Amino acid sequence: MATTTTKTETLVGKRIRRREDPRLITGTATYVEDIKMPGMHYAAIVRSPHAAAKIRSIDTSKAAAHPGVAAVFVGKDVAGVGPVPCGASLPGLRVPHHSILATDRVYFVGHPVAVVVATDRYIAADAADLVEIDWDVTQAVADPEKALASGAPAVHPEWPDNKAFDFHQEHGEIDKAFAEADVVVKQRITSQRLIPTAMETRGVVAEWRAADRALTLYTSTQIPHLVRTLVAMMLGLEENRLRVVAPEVGGGFGSKLNVYAEEALMGFVSMKIGKPVKWIESRRENFLTTIHGRGHVDYYEIAAKKDGTILGIKLKIIQDLGAYHQLLTPAIPTLSVLMMPGLYRTQNIRADIVGVFTNCVPTDAYRGAGRPEATHGIERMVDMLAAELKMDPAEIRLKNFVHKDEFPFPTATGLTYDSGDYAAPLKKAMDLAGYDKLRAEQAEARKQGKLMGIGISTYGEICALGPSPATPAGGWESATVKIEPTGKVTVMTGASPHGQGEETTFAQVAADELGVDIDDILVLHGDTSIVQYGIGTFGSRGTAVGGTAMYFALQELKAKLKKFGAMMLNSDDVTLANGQCVCNKTGAAKSIAEMAAASYRAMALPPNTQPGMVSTYFWEPPNFTFPFGAHLVVTDIDKDTGAISIRRYIAVDDCGNLLNPLIVDGQVHGGVAQGLGQALWEQAVYDDNGQLVTGELTDYVVPRAHMMPWIESSHTITPTPVNPLGVKGVGEAGTIGCSPAVVNSVVDALSPLGVKHIDMPMTPEKIWNLVKGAH
Amino acid sequence: MIPQNFEYAAAQTLDDAIKQIAGGAKPLAGGMSLIPMMKLRLATPERLIDIGRLKELNYIRESGGALHIGAAATHHEVESSGLVRGKCPLLSETASHIGDVQVRNMGTIGGSIAHADPSADYPAALQALEAKFVLKSSSGERTVSAADFFVDTFATALEPGEMIREVIVPLEAQGTGVSYQKMYQPASGFAIVGIALRIARSGGKISMARIGVTGLSGKSYRAIDAEKALEGKAGSATEIQNAAALVPQNVDINSDLHASADYRRHLAVVYAARAIAAALSRSA
Ligand SMILES: Cc1cc2nc3c(=O)[nH]c(=O)nc-3n(C[C@H](O)[C@H](O)[C@H](O)COP(=O)(O)OP(=O)(O)OC[C@H]3O[C@@H](n4cnc5c(N)ncnc54)[C@H](O)[C@@H]3O)c2cc1C
Fold this sequence. Notes:
heterodimer; A: alpha+beta; Aldehyde Oxidoreductase, domain 4; 3 domains; seven-stranded mixed beta sheet; 28% helix; 23% strand; B: 284 residues; alpha+beta; Uridine Diphospho-n-acetylenolpyruvylglucosamine Reductase, domain 3; five-stranded antiparallel beta sheet; globular
């Protein structure tokens, strides 16, 4: 029965509630941990308690003899499994061999050494304690600058200088710019290591069916297809024999944009024991062994004329890579270089990156991935320059922005900014804040000895990753749209959303394009045996690239529908709109459902047309998109305790067209929460022995709801010409815009005391010390 | 995050619980501290006896000029009890600062005291209130003051086989002003410092001051020198400051990731001054 409901109301641009939420908030969603199978075994992983050690011997006999234990595997048992892959390539990159279980050495606390498989998880955990390892503990180094010092312990003995790579990029006449400058400001700026802390830790269920020669891997990932290709290669299994399912994924933030040792390890275990096996990461394992983010020490220099015109920027990044390269580890700081000019016109840049091995878990993509570091750096430097020149921080920005009539704008780092009006969000934020009044209030407060700060950041970011030549794995995205014989619409997206709300936004777009009710549309994703090959969700690409692929698939379907409509209405003059095909002469109409039914029944076919109503589209983006915006933050400092309170948080973001402002708000709020986390609270602290001091949520400060300020979120809208939806991406904007605005605000508050820069996180004790030091 | 094997039984009566504890079972109340310790395998008890649901331990009543609170009264019950709010407001105010709603719904006063976390909130108030704890074992009961009960970090006067049955706090006299001021450790929610204050005035002078301190060192304590410095004074800003400065005197001050010893010492003074001023403003 054809039951598709037609509709005339458009949904794009409306605040529609997320269609995925009911299952999430009623506890009926299926995460990896919820999967149970007959005969399922459980794995516990034995991990190194040392940051650097040689393994003299491993005795697994007691563990293996423990009742209920099915198997114990160590490094030599998995020698046939390929190394954990690094997808990034840089000239001269040193790539350590990253086996899925350590063999003779360990390089960080948490390094997997053995896996114990048992009939239940309690037995597995008990037996893991029985694995005896004879360690020869060696010296570790956990700080990237210390690792570069001469005489530092070598993380990998074959590379005693601890360098993984040197990278250099330069444009324009940088030496001339600095020679001619009236003023040069220099600052060392750190972007501390952060722990992504997705609410759901990682987890894998592997099920090998020997008779079918088929392995299914349920894994909490952002990139199921890439995991399929890479894990199949690691296991030496034909790719079409591996099915990867990303069920409900409870947050990723980049930490699940990866291929992890445990994914291949569970596949290996299941193939060995012939039973399904489950491994769920504990929070402590998550902190120790899932990638961290950031980890920069940046040395900035900015040159300018007296009037504030920026002449050039130099940047040296010391990137703490950790002990290995995960999927994109060495590529992340190159994104910082790409975005180092920010929204400013200067064509003179010089950038150097030193990638440094440390005895820590690898760093990799974390919300913003390289761009928060770049934005933090340039936005701090511009503020410092303004202070040096005694200019207003808004004025210096307005002076240096790329003008709105200069797009597409080629940047010093080789990008082409798509579209923008950078002054617009800044002016809007200042209007919303009542900027001049705030400055007057601040002057008054200062007379009374109060510490009040006003901070601005104007950020630009690179989204919709991206043109394939500029990405490690192909930057296109795919979609299939099917209209079923009964007229129901199924969308399969290669992007693998995990919290971004695309089941809703994609349905809105499809509903509008086809003119059908949103309830007639189902969006599927995250299962390689259902969905055509795709790349995944990261880099604010899901809608801008994946949504565009769906848009083009819809256009193809609409063309096909129109052919059927014309045939059925026996007319060449038809219009497809509002869910039906109408003959312009007679007014006779056929609904989508009728046309779909006819296409499957195929009693007659339009010329050169196949039966069925299915279209698959792989869209290759011609460029990245470049969202931008302005965040303005007002802070008050408690002089007695150093506590910072955020009085106002104004976020004006321009992410192009808004498909669903409610979801955009959510993305901004979440992004700002993580930006505030970095600015005020979060840091992964390793001690000199490479022990993670912030190994639990009792010590690692993730922002809680009650710690959040009220966020005044609004937008300017500058559609991108890069895709027909005009959307730029908003997944990371909040994070990127946030931290410099907060730091600039607090530095502004403390500027009467002579404070020029503060590194993150700005803990109350740090602020108290600055206040105290000034007296 | 997987505890070792253990046996579990829910006590049906207090006597039953005492018998089990005498036999080596570990009491489980709200589980808010014990279960995490077991999951991290920092505690590996073989037998748990659940006392969290014992009606005999769950009460709040007034008798003999004091409030008697059963060890299994939850933080939420203490926070929201009309009796506690009316007659011992320092304790309900302090309870409201513990953890989050879930923790307050599960955690108990007896569990918090027995656990003796040096950063827990209750001990500050119980020191300032000069509370007494009734400890019960198979050989009978004894009463210990808060000052004697808290021995050191995670160490108390509880003997093997003994449990906390009841907490006794005085009824606050009319006109006494109280306040609990806390600097939160932002990750755990525990106190970096917590200062509990009780102040009574008569004839324009402070006639009684009690100051309980938590978070600063290995155990909670009463800042008696600071109390004495206040008594007999009108409570000017300088007098408050001078008294507050005595709060961290002569104690070994903790230092950790979240606050160095110097900063903690300083915070103790700041928060003490705030608590004194607040209590003073509420006193009549
Ligand atoms: C997320 C989180 C946040 C928290 N934040 C705070 C905070 O901000 N401030 C704060 O003060 N606390 C905080 N806590 C701790 C909380 O207050 C606990 O409830 C309390 O410490 C223990 O009480 P319980 O009833 O849960 O005891 P349990 O965990 O059941 O037991 C704790 C210990 O006490 C023993 N025990 C329990 N009852 C008795 C008894 N009657 N007699 C003898 N021994 C007994 C147990 O054997 C065990 O050794 C937090 C806990 C969590 C999980």
